[in-house]
Amino acid sequence: MTAKRRTVGRLAPTPSGELHLGNVLAFGAAWLATRADAGELLLRIEDVDTTRSREHWVEGLKNDLDWLGIHWDRETPRQSLRTYQAELESLGGVYYCRCTRAQLGGLPYMGTCRLQNHSEGAVRWEVPPDPIAFEDRKFGPQRVQPVDFGDPVLKRSDGCFSYNLAVVVDDIRDGVTQVVRGADLLEFTAVQISLWRAFGSKEPSFLHTPMVLGPDGKKLSKSHGSLSIRALRESGKSPQDVWRKVLPWLGLPGDDLHAALPFFRPEIGPVGPIQIDAAD
Ligand SMILES: [Zn+2]
């Protein structure tokens, strides 16, 4: 008889701006899902895209998480300190692509450069044709044909490794068994599962939290500065004020993340998108 593997979850913020309410929803859910399994929660700074990431955001992210009571057990090496070259080279079916954005015309990439034997450019992966079926813990059964999206870029022509490659390699190295994150990443899940399997690993469970839209109807981002956690804190709001707003998005009562833990179930609550009013 084999013992059930201990749950390992992760908080994986990108230091490209301030934490906002959509991030709080995803990180709160990650904390709850890991603690509900008495698992270990890791913090990993996802700064693989050095053109977007800035060191000065990192401390602010950690302070905001701490202020909200989203405590992690251990920080793992951030992406800018890791390399993904060996894993990239271990994959079959990778090739250089020299097509420009204009040549692609916004269409899925159908492998124009597969047989061209280019010696430089972006590195793409000939994604296996198998359909990927998985069960999202909130959004339910999903079935996606990764080839419909075309061969993904795993390393850009500027030398940056792609998010899809980095996140899968990191989660394998870090022993992650459950991934909890915002619904904007749901569409990348199938190609990531293809990568997990290509590396000979069993993929984790997935839970995507609803998209949160600002008063303008657009996905929350750093352009919604007044809804950043720092701005809310500086306007006199308490962590309880934040949780009173966010916990109902997870179908949970009250104004305290830790007190809500016994009631947490991944499948309850709205699937969204959740619209924030200007008056909030
Ligand atoms: Zn190409």
Using brief descriptors, characterize the structure shown.
alpha/beta, 9 helices, Rossmann fold, 280 residues, three-stranded antiparallel β-sheet, binds zinc ion, three-stranded parallel β-sheet
Structural overview:
- It is a single chain.
- The strands form five sheets. A three-stranded parallel beta sheet has the order 1-2-3, with helices on one face. Strands 4-5-8 form a three-stranded antiparallel beta sheet. Strands 6-7 form a two-stranded antiparallel ribbon.
- The chain folds into two domains: 177 residues, HUPs (Rossmann fold, 3-Layer(aba) Sandwich); 71 residues, Rossmann fold.
- Helix content is 28%, strand content 16%.
- With 280 residues, it is an alpha/beta fold.
- It is globular and about 60 Å long.
- The site of zinc ion (ZN) has 5 residues, from loops.
Beta content comes to 15-25%
Number of helices: 9
**Roughly what is the average pLDDT, rounded to an integer?**
93
Name given to the CATH architecture of the largest domain: 3-Layer(aba) Sandwich
Spatial gap, N to C terminus:
53 Å
Low-confidence stretches: none
The sequence of SSEs as H and E is EHEHEHEHEEEEHEHEEHHHE
Net shape: globular
Brief write-up:
The chain contains nine helices and twelve strands.
List the helices and strands and how they pair.
Elements (H helix, E strand, L loop, with lengths): L7 E4 L9 H16 L3 E4 L11 H13 L6 E2 L9 H6 L3 E4 L3 H4 L17 E4 L6 E5 L3 E5 L8 E3 L7 H11 L4 E5 L6 H10 L6 E5 L2 E2 L15 H6 L4 H8 L10 H4 L13 E2 L5
Parallel strand pairs: 1-2, 2-3, 9-10, 11-12
Antiparallel strand pairs: 4-5, 5-8, 6-7
Helix pairs in contact: 5-6
The structure holds zinc ion.
